[in-house]
Structure of Transporter:
Amino acid sequence: MTPTLLVAIAGAGIALLLFLVLRYKLQPFVALMLVSILVALAAGVEPSKLVATIEGGMGKTLGHIAIIIALGAMIGRIIELSGGAESLAQTLIHRFGNRRTPLALTVAGFLVGIPVFFEVGVIILMPLAYGVARASRKPLLALALPMCAAMLTVHAFLPPHPGAVAAAGQLGADLGRILLFGLPITAVLCLVGYLVSARMTRRHYPMTDDVRLDVYGPQVTDAHLEQWAAGRDMAPGLPTLGAAAVKVDETPSGIAATLPAAPAPGFGLIAALILLPIVLILMGTLANSLVPAGSLLHDVLTVLGAPFVALLLDTLLCAYVLGARRGWSASQISEVIGSALPSVAMVILIAGAGGVFGKVLVDTGIGAIVSEMLRSTGLPVLALGFILTLLLRAVQGSTTVALVTTAGILGPLIATLDLSANQMALLCLAMGGGGLAMSHINDAGYWIFTKLVGLNVGDGLRTWTVLTTLLGSLGFILTLLLWPFV
């Protein structure tokens, strides 16, 4: 089969994937599997070897990422239902003070976003943003925009989030090095997001009536909000509670309603539980470079720094400290941990299906041909990773699908390059920048944000889409600046 025909088959496969997801709203896992099978058969894979190809791609990918994603989700679920995420945010708001509540919520979004998936983090923290907006007389958008942008930034760039883990698994990048470079990069991006949001929200964006009534009550009109956005208060008689007194008025439901009442865990404890697996993974990575191989210390740090070991230890510690010590029974702890899995099961399968697609590209020889075509463009590999991910993200909406598909396309090219471990980590982060950018009307996260803050479609594109694209592009630029030094 000629190279031109193989490339045409690959292009038709990607076009079919996008068509099925966008036009018929087919679940991405099903679409990826179907397209992978069709591309494999069209490209000449023998039917007798098709099953081995599919199972090989799925097994190799899931063997690396399934445990990490599942354990990360369990940690986030325990922190969520223990009230730890809300407690962390409340403490930050109290310490930063009323004038800097947007910055406090940005920091809260960054910290909560590490263990908690984006959509869950928004649902947890948005009621808190409502309360702060009501009490401090600030436009809701000024509080929610930098907070949610911080959570999406972490979701796109850092493990244990599925896109980052899947991309690293397919390309063979070290998660510890991704964290080593990714944490400061995402921290800078969150700060920039806060500063840009502060300037962006000086302009008034009208809120839908239902959200305005829910947040501020009937006594606050859109005219009040316009004055507040301009920094003026035209209604001094409205009650103000102060940020420290903000409460989230939510009645527990589901599993949360069955858990015994207990004081919310403290800020220091939650921060320590979030940072523990990160520190262990980083220590394991540094041990490979700084500690003599074969020594007891090297072996201990290597085991503790393995991502799945670090996350497993943190899961057990969260279950004990946030659960058993606060009155949860063994069955309740088990139920809480188990409740994390349904929300991530499909994400894990999507990542595995992306691995299948990548395996098909390699086994059919399409990957090698595409690799040579990409090399002939003359673009640096970082730019290729960023652009491909951004285009797939813009077209089909999912950060995870964009990252796993790009990893499958770039895999054969990466195999021909002599990239260091640090460069591989930066490549994954550059792809994360593409996965962050272009969150618009085909992205579920876009609709969650705009509906909860009461924005219309146009204003959502002017604020949320512009900000995420700016931050994603800046993230790519930062990886590009670091590239010569690693």
Q: What stands out?
A: The two ends are 40 Å apart (CA to CA). The chain is about 75% helix and 0% strand. The CA atoms of residues 94 and 244 lie 5 Å apart. The longest helix spans residues 47-81.
